[in-house]
């Protein structure tokens, strides 16, 4: 069995990678466990120095890494290079702050001294997606390696080359052999890895069905999990919003990475009194986007990552139109190339409202007032991110408390940031990545009591 890497823009086979045998998987588990013993003995300062070197290597070879991303999953080269640089910046942030994040927390009790210590546990298995093939890996791996855990990565099969390149980079940065390893295995072969006692936790970023499957397996073997799953993020525009800023941000938040983001602004919920103006502005912006060759500087959106994903988006769009939605722009599909589209007249019950649309398809729903907008925003099984637009930021902050979501960004697009905790509620998952909360997820929080 082999995994194929296919350039989405032309469907050219870029590379093939043979799957790991059972013997190879066990060898990687052995190496990971041996490396854990070495890594946890290294000082925090030494780990931070290795991570700083990893950041430097990312910046020195940004075009090389960006090109690999574009070839394997199709995002524009400028977006791919920005993704690599974001990984570097986050590595530097964590390396500069990990010592304080791991500092034992003193607790007042009846003891002479009591505190919570934060200690590494062993190997953590990461099951990661293709849409941000570097960032999704680095945002988990950085704090865990700095804290002393080792990593086994099961990357999406269509970005196997990215997984192997990341493994090579950490090795070249000076981390001990086996600290970060890429597994080339299919999803159906992952249970023995989760079951292995050397694996102390599992983190997954992916679809809700994938999260359900992994959570069941991890529960069976008593393994800690963090799940960052799907989203159908609302982008709420109130009547007192700065419409020009909201429209510009809405298009960027929906169409970047060809719309293939868990936190993309998938449902635009707009107060009726300003809807016509907003729709006119976003329609103009969307029709001006250039879809095409991701290596050209003037391309705004590249192809979708796989043909089956583009076909699924086409099904969702066509079904929504059959249900009464109106197509105002785009929607043409040629293989993986999908022209950015705008649907209006979206109502609860329609496919584009009820399902996660993972591609360059914007959907507008009208709200009677701000209370109705919040009701519509919460009318979803997902709860990853939300964007809320109003010039009255105090009112917006009060409304943010009413939104069922792990992240609410006021007058800004939802994004992940190493300084801020990131994660969802409801079927968007549980646990947190990034910030100090993400650094602690897979650590043993050990209570020490001294009489």
Given this structure, which CATH class of the largest domain is correct?
A: Alpha Beta
Number of strands: 20
**Mean pLDDT, nearest integer?**
98
Describe the sheet with the most strands: 7 strands, mixed
Helix content: 40-55%
Question: For the record, what is the CATH homologous superfamily label of the largest domain?
Answer: Aldehyde Dehydrogenase, Chain A, domain 1
CATH topology of the largest domain: Aldehyde Dehydrogenase, Chain A, domain 1
The tally of domains stands at: 2
Based on CA atoms alone, the radius of gyration comes out at 22 Å
Shape estimate: globular
Adjacency order of strands in the biggest sheet: 12-15-16-11-10-17-18
User: What's the CATH architecture name of the largest domain?
Assistant: 3-Layer(aba) Sandwich
Question: Ends: how far apart?
Answer: 59 Å
**Low-pLDDT windows of residues:** none
Query: How many helical stretches?
Result: 15
State which percent range the strand residues make up.
Answer: 15-25%
Helix/strand class: alpha/beta
Q: How is the secondary structure organized here?
A:
Layout: E1 2-7, E2 12-18, H1 22-41, H2 44-60, H3 62-73, H4 77-101, E3 105-106, E4 113-120, E5 123-128, H5 135-147, E6 150-155, H6 160-172, E7 180-183, H7 191-195, E8 199-205, H8 208-220, E9 224-228, E10 233-237, H9 243-255, E11 265-271, H10 272-287, H11 307-322, E12 326-329, E13 333-334, E14 337-338, E15 341-344, H12 351-354, E16 361-367, H13 370-378, E17 385-389, H14 393-400, E18 407-410, E19 429-430, H15 435-440, E20 443-450
Parallel strand pairs: 5-6, 5-8, 6-7, 8-9, 10-11, 10-17, 11-16, 15-16, 17-18
Antiparallel strand pairs: 1-2, 3-4, 4-20, 9-19, 12-15, 13-14
